[in-house]
Amino acid sequence: MDYSRLRIWFIVTFTLAVLAIVIRAIWQIVVIPTPATMLIFIPLIVAILGMNALFAYLVVNPQKLRGLPFLTGVTVALTAGLLAGVAHFVRFIISPLAEHFLCKIIGSLVVLSSISAYLLVLRIIWSLRKAERR
User: Fold this and answer.
1) How far is CA 77 from CA 16, 32, 112, 116, in A?
2) CB within 8 A of 110, min separation 6: which ones?
3) 48 burial class (0-12, 13-18, 19+ CB within 10 angstroms)?
4) Residues 105-131: pLDDT tens digits?
5) What is the dihedral of CA 116, 117, 119, 122, to 10 degrees?
6) 47, exposed or middle or buried, with CB in 10 Å at 0-12, 13-18, 19+?
7) How far is it, in rounded angstroms, from Cα 110 to Cα 40?
8) What is the pLDDT averaged over residues 81-110?
9) Rounded CA separation 60/50 (Å)
């Protein structure tokens, strides 16, 4: 059975949602053009666009999950997302919105779990690459 139309439909559907998020992020940069905003939203845009490209790549060519371009793309997108998250956390902790003590605890737990998940994914990716070389 030919799934090419279904694959295109998946890609278009996901890309439309991604475009809405990217336009909103660019709008945020235009509305509040501060270095802190750019430090958060530019890596976020890179991460979102990278994930969209990886999604499209997987839909078109699902047997390439262990290929170097895929693993490199995942690493780049996750790194950009983590940078945006950490920058947002640092900016949030010093803001007056984080006045309540629990806000700081929740924010710290989210950042710590994100860093832990990032290191776990890197470890898995490196293990896959090491196993392929053998």
Assistant:
1) 19, 24, 18, 16
2) 85, 89
3) buried
4) 877 887 888 888 888 888 887 887 787
5) 180
6) buried
7) 16
8) 79
9) 15
Rg of the Cα atoms in the chain: 18
Total-model pTM: 0.60
At 127, which amino acid appears? S
Break the chain into its structural domains and give their ranges.
Answer: 4-133
Whether 111 and 98 have beta carbons less than 8 Å apart is answered as no
* Mean per-residue pLDDT of the chain: 82
Determine the Cα–Cα distance for residues 60 and 85; give it in Å rounded to an integer: 29
- Residue 44 CB burial class (10 angstroms; 0-12, 13-18, ≥19): buried
Which has the closest alpha carbon to 88: 105, 107, 74?
107
